[in-house]
Amino acid sequence: MVKHIVMWALNEDAKKDSEKITADLQNRFKSLLGVVDGLKAIEVGRNYNGGKYDLVLLCVFDSKEAQEKYQMHPAHVAIKEIVHSLTCGRECADYEI
């Protein structure tokens, strides 16, 4: 099993609507369940502790191969384009359990 964690910093315009954006992205990412093979769980949340990053994505995959397919899946790529328009910073961590 693989866990994929991404943290994003919202750009200044997006910060004004962070609650709405978080809910929208949560719905978009959740829509990938059952569409992307090997994706077992996915969630997006708003960081309430302050710091550099505003949003966090957590994904759980069956395998590294499933994660690689997710990265190229057209439905994920479409969401990724939206995220890029809203953010100005990103960090990522992946690990196997």
Could you characterize what this model shows?
The N and C termini lie close together (about 5 Å). This protein has a four-stranded antiparallel β-sheet. By secondary structure, it is an alpha+beta fold. The mean pLDDT is about 95. The protein is built from four helices and four strands, in the order E-H-H-E-E-H-H-E. The protein has helices at about 10-15, 20-30, 65-70, 75-85; strands at about 1-10, 40-45, 55-60, 85-95. The chain has a single domain (about 1-95), classed as Alpha-Beta Plaits (2-Layer Sandwich), CATH 3.30.70.100. Helix content is about 40%, strand content about 35%. Strand 2 (about 40-45) and strand 3 (about 55-60) form a beta hairpin.
List keywords for this structure.
4 helices, Dimeric_a/b-barrel, Stress responsive A/B barrel domain protein, 4-stranded antiparallel β-sheet, 4 strands, Alpha-Beta Plaits, 40% helix
